[in-house]
Amino acid sequence: MKKRDVYLRGIPLQEASDRFFGGLVNHGRELGMEGEPVPVDVGALFRITAEPVFARLSQPAYHSCAMDGIATRSHATFGASETSPRRLRLGEDAVFVDTGDPLPKGFDSVIMVEDLVETTPDEVTIIAPSKPWQHVRTVGEDIVATELVLPENHRISAFDLGALLAAGVTQVIVRRKPKVVIIPTGDELIPPGATPETGDIIEFNSRLIGGLVQEWGGEPVFWDIVPDELEALTEAVRKASLLADVIVVNAGSSAGSEDYTADIVKSLGELFVHGVAIKPGKPTILGIVDGKPFLGVPGYPVSAALSCELFLLPLLAKMLGQTVKDRATVNAISARRIVSVPGMDEFVRVKVGKVSGRYVASPLARGAGAIMSLVRADGYIEIPGSSQGILESSEVTVNLLRDVEEIDNAIVAIGSHDLALDLLGSLLAGEYPGVNLSSTHVGSMGGIMAMRRGEAHIAGIHLLDEETGEYNVPYVKRYLDSKDYALLNLVYREQGLMVPPGNPKDIQGISDLVKPGISFVNRQRGAGTRILLDLELRKLGIGEDKISGYEHEEYTHMGVAASVANSVADVGLGIRSAARALGLDFIPVAWERYDLLMTREFLHSSSMDKLFSVIWSQQFKDQVSSLGGYDVSDSGEVMWEG
Residue 49: CB partners within 8 Å, gap ≥ 6? Predict the structure, then answer.
């Protein structure tokens, strides 16, 4: 029978950190890396000095002329003025010099060529005296031999390279980069480039972690994938400890029957922590093996990244004699309510944009396996374990992952998702570097509410009014002060039922959703697609309780398509382009108008001018049309202005 371990209690984050670093010290582990010599060249850039660096030479090494002109003796120029010009004999009282020339012996000043009134082959005339050492760079003016150039634990910059070479230093002692061996483990893992079959997962976490290691000043060492076998993983950790400064095992840290990491640490060293009260990342393991710091990080990428940031980053910083700098922060308004589990410090990744002079934070997908949330995030909110979450529109502190200037230039879109909106964002960034479309998907009604609260620049909506048969305008009038708003068409698009290739359940229309054995995947409440479905159901007199899977929700059309493509559901309602992207069959239901809702003020803004230039472009229209199921005949047209 396979062994199933249990977590040690999820201890608070600060206590886990104290146990880890305190345990390393108790084992006599000196964290500071020893020094190694490197040439003073671009290869030394960003390395950390292991000892102070002193100048070997003075700079300049001789008294040098700082201007083109004449070198002279200052006392010989005394009394010169416009009313009493003074003539200096060349070769005796003056010598012509160029910038950088050694100051001739016996001379102590330089007069710029622009200040010479008259010159002859034998004399020059001046109308102002010179001061001692005027326009002269004296020996050691910049650097004096033996003076400190760089202190210990200094991160070498490009300017430092120049100063070191100027000071005669051609080799510098820097801290050796900590070697971090990264061991991926799991029977389901396959290497990048291999074709995955059912049950296979491409192993990418090691490169994610390795990239962080390199960014933080370490040297990643990538191990081959190790299967979920106690002996194989034990041997891998033992071998890694012979060449590593730090060991990281990815996956195998949880409490499953094949999660051996904690026991391996106990057998080869000492286990300090198994289970930290953080979300994501609870199954983190911290210990020591053969005198080497050991981290066991969860297999989900978001969990792995957070565990590394909380424990590996400060570890590498200590090894390199550095401190972890606090991230820049902004105060923002939360666009949605965020529910959190008491007793766990939760880290929620968010999109951030500036709307009407204030920052707005929209939470991204919170699943620990959502790798794209790491790509899309502008920052994160830390929710302490003493809290039960964050209320909608409450103020939060966002730790930024991007420059604030990039966030300030974002156009914030909160509302319904569409692939055309994704293309718009991509083309916008290509046409206007530094400008980006920050898009969060909360459905059409969510977009209208975000606009009402002043939390977005634009909102994608496609809401059919049952009474009038009109798209979008009735909802704007119903929920907003309509005189202040406008609707711009982005596309018309075709909605329909997405089914597996060949339509094995023979689904022909909405009425077939009630057939026995058919499972449905829906969009979230407030989504225009959900509203369209409910209208169609009412026309047919079908209650939502008759549809198996009606409560199964996805937040994007691609999410619905993926559920059908992966046999999570038999059918879902969505746009043709999503079905086409994943090779699904499509049963048309209706064409709908997908508009961008915005204020009239934004409609006439410089930011909207940039969006117009992209939406009106043939490139945008061609790319959207190529997706299938779109009509771009009215793209960029103002459909209604309040």
Answer: 150, 151, 152, 153, 154, 156, 172, 173, 174, 175
